[in-house]
Amino acid sequence: MIDYHIHLERGPYDKEWLERFIKVGKSRGIEEFGIVEHLYIFTQAKDLLYQNDHVKKMQKRNINEYFSFLNKMKETYNIKIGLEVDYTEEYEHEIKTFVKDLPVDFLIGSVHYLDGWAFDLDKEWKGKDIEEVYKNYYKTLFKAAKSNIFDVLGHSGNIAYFGYKPKREVENELVLEFYEKISKLDIVLEINSGGLYRPAGVVFPEKRWFKKIKGFDIDLTCSSDAHDPKNVGFAIKEDIIPTLKSVGYNQLVTFDRRQKAYKPI
To answer: What does pTM read for this prediction?
Structure first.
C-alpha cells in the first residue's frame, strides 16, 4: 500500500522525526511513503502565492535543505519526494517556471484559494454564495489539472472542508462534469482520507464518487494528508482500499522522477 501525501513541516528535517511517520505507516500496512511539503513554506517560493498572514508565518524553510534531507533518507527508507503546490491562475506562469526542473518524483497540484480567499481557513464563509463558490472551485481545479504542471490533483472536493455544500443536484452536476473533463487529461487523481479526521468527516473525493471515477477510467493515488505521525495511513487499509476494489480498481499509481508506474492493491 502507498500513502502519497505526508507533510513533515511541523517538525525538523531529521531522521527521528521522519521515523515517527514511517513507524505508524508501517503498522498500518504502508510500504511506500510520498513525502510532500506545501511549496509556500519555502522562502524561495515567496513569489508563488498570496502573502497573507498564514503564508508569511509558515514561510521559513529552505527548499534545498528539504531535498538534501530526503535524498539522504532515500538510502534507508522507501520514500518518494514530492511537493504540494497551491494552484492559482494568477501565479500559473510563475509556478510552472519555478517547478519545471525541481528534483522531485511527483508534484501534487491543489486548490486552497479562490480569488485570494483561503476557504479551508475560514470557518464562517460569511457573505459567500455557496453555489458560486463551488462553481469557482471546480473551474479552478480543472485549470490546475489542464495546466500540465502537476502529476497528481490533490484532494478534489476539499471545498467541503467545513461542511458547506450547495443543493445536491448542483453539486452532482459540477462534480460529474469535472471528472468527465479531467478523464481526457494525463492527470492522476488523489484519494485523500484526510477529510475523515477533519471537520468534513468524509474522504476527498467522497466515496460515493468512486464508481463514477472508475467509469471514467481515471488513475489514482492514495493518501492520508498526514501532518502528524498519528495520521499516516489513516483509514487506507480498512476503508479506502476495500472500497476502491469494490468498484473495480486493482492498482494505484506511483512515481519515480515524474514517471508513472502501477502498484497492485
So the answer is: 0.97
